[in-house]
Amino acid sequence: MEMQKRPLTPEEDALEHIVARRDKPFLEERFIDSFKGRGLFTHKTIEPSTFVVEYRGNIFCHKDTRPREECGDTLNNYLYEFSWKGANWCIDASEEDRSLGRLVNDDHISPNCEMRKVVCEGKPHLCIFAVKEISPGEEITYNYGDSSYLWRSRESFGGSSSSNTDFYATSSTPWNEMLEDLAVSSSEQSCSDDDDDDDDEDEEVTNSGPSHDSDSFTNINSQLDFRDSPSFTEFDSSQEPSGSFMLQPDDASCSQQEDEAALDSDEHGADEEYTPSEPKKTSFTSKNYCYVCGKGISKFARHLLKHADEEPDIAEAFALPKFSKERKRLLDRLRNKGNYNHNQEVLRNNSGELKVRRRQTTVATSAKTCVHCLYCKGMFNRKNMWKHVSRCTSRKMLNPETPGKTRVLSEIALAESRFSQQLPSGVWNMFSTMKHDQISFVVQNDYLLIQLAQYLTEKYGNNLNKHEYIRQKLREMGRLLLALHEKSIFNFEDVIKPQNFYKVVETVKGIAGFDEKNQGYDKPSLALKIGHSLKKLCRIALSVTDDNEQMRDTKTFMTLCTKEWSELVSQTAVASLSGRRVNSPSTIPFTRDMQTFYRYLEAASASATDSLKMHESPQVYSALCRVTLAQVSVLNKGAPEVSKMTLKSFQERDDAAQVLSKHFIRINILSKTSQYVAVLLTSDLVSALTLLISKRMTCGVHEDNPFLFAKPDFSASSLYHGGNCIRAFSSLCRAKNPEHLRSVHLQKHIARVFQILNLENDELDHLAKLLGHNIRADRDYYRLPEAAVELAKIAKLLLAMEKGSLERFKGNSLDEIEIEGMCPL
Ligand SMILES: C[S@@+](CC[C@H](N)C(=O)[O-])C[C@H]1O[C@@H](n2cnc3c(N)ncnc32)[C@H](O)[C@@H]1O
């Protein structure tokens, strides 16, 4: 069935690309001229407001001032400065990582895009959005800002040509100047901090970097902060209280640690208490608050008397005999009522002083650790709450039986849930007997999980034996949702969107302890149970919504569950359960990923080859060198010796030593242990390497550097590493499971498929016939997903041939060879 997707908003589109670290396929890097260098172009019409590309790089905050030498002037062309949340930030895109945002050039007269901030997982990202329609073939540009960049004068006055390097040097602001600018802007910023602490909209963009200045964010008001969008607000408002949030680069990892800790404590049954959020600054008051006029007062009883005429409750209390227990109890209740109203206001506004009953110096007290008693409404430290409840006179009047500690805390948390007013009593009871922690908090605050709880309690609620089962089911799903927070998914309505399906798969694998190397699960039954519950949740979602778009999305998600879950999760989980080990990921999607990877490397190599032929620069040289090394490395099963190949061994090769086909040659290189290792090269790779060698000197490779894959950094010993290159390109190639492409134990299989993809038509036909099947001898066929089956089978046979176990396939045609994980395409 064709997948029906709601079109993403530009912001969602940006977020998806940020998270996946991908660029759009219709964008292309092109070398323009030696003055401008490279630029970014589109093959497709881009509509106004569309998200185009992220200016991706390493982010750092200027509080951690980087040593100057790390950001040498030559790299400053790729530094983008901006301020966010009262701090100065910089995206350093100087690494030649093939990301495309870093290649967008400046146009201060008629740019077709603008730069905006998009907040993802608590960090700012710089994204380029179209401001007008951009036609195919047009260059993507935005206005770098108001600085007097030298290229602008050349453009305006048609000045004489200068080398790109000259411009790099002259257009750069030295690092210390930049820091001075930042110091000024941050002191200006701090003056207004009190007023606009958390107000992104008022925030000044002090982009004092060399290539971009403050005007770069042309549309400050339209900057996108997704903490305000439904999927972000909910989580962030509890995790990052407004005003106090001073983002540091490692914020995300902190929250990850917290999540992990929560999971751990769940697994080991630790009785840690969960405290959901904390306001910006907790201070406490000794005053009491009047529930009538809201004032904070020191002499509370005396003040209350003033309202006796207007408030019958006050009159009633003062009519009771002085010092009587009853009078004291009533006055206490009235005092708590005012304090409760006041505290709610403080927590809501995130400012003010909390009124807590009996703060103990021995117990750390903060807004995070304080909660209101459900019965008398007094605020106590969580740790003291149960003690208080066991004595609380208001509780005794309502419920003579002292509830257990877990129940007390769970009920308090439940009362704080935003759905507390609407919970059916069966669900309330179920929730209040759940362990009180971050997972139960997530469950009690998710609309669809509450629906699931209702469905389960209605179905099994009468059977006491099933209560634990229901709680477990809910906790499994709560744990999943908690883990999905890491991927910016905060509620189950979003979980069951088709665009999130693969994130869900990855997360389920994570929490069920999937081991990449052994292809097995630690907790296979958890993976299976979550699969069932997801389908159930989809059915529930369909029954509670009348929103057509949501229905369509949910149905598509269910279809994905039906078609792909088994292949991606259950098969391996079932195998793990029965003690079997699946040695490779499901073959068909894996082989498809390999095709994607192969095609990506091929295209990247072609584009880098063209660029290097036209333009000799270290960047272009580096691009071709790294893609070639990635190709040689995969073809040679990730052998570490490949990276260390010497120029000499390549130059002294014997082209006559062809193997497998006329398109492959073998070079014998000496390994560390003085043994010869064979390195296989295709004729295309030989051409790329020959081109690289011819440009070594002009692109900055040291003349004494002996390595074939030397870095163009004038060092006599630096070299690129094959593993790093494979990792980088496998992430960029849009494979569904890039991690499989990096897996050491799959290298052999990957290498086989790469060899097959390199064969020419006649050879492929020949090979197919040899293998007993007359497959179509069209090379392009092997680029189609349908060919994945054949490729997988041929690779399997070649592998068997290498192991000497081909015998077991004797007499079988390709059709009869079985591939693990195969399902009808
Ligand atoms: C972020 S990089 C853009 C990509 C760059 N053109 C390249 O080849 O890598 C910024 C540098 O590109 C060059 N540049 C950007 N816009 C330009 C323009 N309109 N004319 C000439 N050079 C430009 C400047 O050297 C600038 O420092």
UniProtKB/TrEMBL annotation:
Superkingdom per UniProt: Eukaryota
InterPro entries per record: SET_dom (IPR001214), SET_dom_sf (IPR046341)
Biased segments, Acidic residues type: 191-205, 257-275
Biased composition (Polar residues): 206-242
UniProt cross-references to PROSITE patterns, sorted A to Z: SET
Biological classification of the source: Eukaryota, Metazoa, Chordata, Craniata, Vertebrata
Protein name as annotated: SET domain-containing protein
Domain SET: 25-145
Annotated region described as Disordered, given as residue ranges: 183-282
